[in-house]
Each structure stands twice: as C-alpha cells, then as structure tokens.
Amino acid sequence: MKPLLLATAFATSASFAAAADRYVLDSSHSQVLFSYDHLGFSTTFGMFSGFEGEIMFDAENPAASSVTVSMPTRSMFTGWEEREEHFMSEDFFGATEEDVITFTSTAIEVTGEDTAKISGDLTMNDITQPVVLDAVLNQTGMHPMANQEWAGFDATTTLLRSDFGLGRAAPFVSDEVEVRISIEAMKAE
Fold first, then answer.
1. Strand, helix or coil at 6?
2. Predicted confidence (pLDDT) at residue 185 exceeds the cutoff of 80
C-alpha cells in the first residue's frame, strides 16, 4: 500500500509541476524600492536592481506557483554615493561584490482574483527571516515588442532592518522599512 501511496503522491506533484509555466525575470523592468523615516524630517528612498530569478506560474492553480529571486547587495542605489558607501560598510552590510539578497517562496495563499500573499524566506546580510509579500498580478499576455508571453507583478511588505542585523541608529532612523516590488517576467522557451 505504501508504494502505491508514494507513487500517487509523486504523480500528483509531477502533474502540479507540469502545469506551471516557467517565467524568467526581466531585470531591466524589475526593481525593489525601499523607504524609511530619517529622524522624522524626511522619507529616504532607495532601490535594488540587477535581478535574477524565475517564477513557476500555474495560472490554473496559482497557489501551486513559486518564485525565486536574487540580486546583488551592492546594486543598491539611493541617489547619494556617500550613503551607499556607508550602507555597504561594516556599519551595515559589510558587502562584497559576491554578496546577494535572495527570496525563495515557501507558500502562496490566493486572496482574490489577482491577489495573493506570498510567504517565503528572505536572506539578507547572511540572515534568513520569513517574509510575507502582498502581491498583485498586474497582467499576463503577449508582450507587444518582444512577441513573447509576459507576466507582471507588484508586491509590498514591511521589514524590520534590525531583524537582518542592520539596526544601526534605530529608533531615530526608523527600524521599519517599507518595500515595494515590481517585476516583469518572460515565459521561458
């Protein structure tokens, strides 16, 4: 009986995997924007780019989808070079050219026709923490210039930078960081 149950489980999981289409991130149209309160005087903004990753998207059963993303830590841009250098110093990331930030989904809860909560593991500054993204499927369809199937998603979350060993100057500089993500991905051939 056990072999039959195992065979059924493997066949079922294989059919879920076969139903998902692989999409590769378009790094030229994908960004992570972040903002935080600076001493109560202003909101400071920045972004990360240089994505690599893929989405296994199951349009019939979105909860069976998955996402993996990585980006170079040193791709951070804030508009002020001295701030970026400080963030990359030992005071914060201590980042080298090889350091990356990664996100790997662990579960997707569909919350509406085009919305979901994507749970996953975010690794940043060599620390992994669970994160939940509030995601929206913007659109799927034929890209008018690439002549390829395309998908676009937006997502938001709030992180505590101290959870990742980046809490210097908190609470004066807010520990909470608002994150906005926008990605485009092309269907792999």
1. helix
2. yes
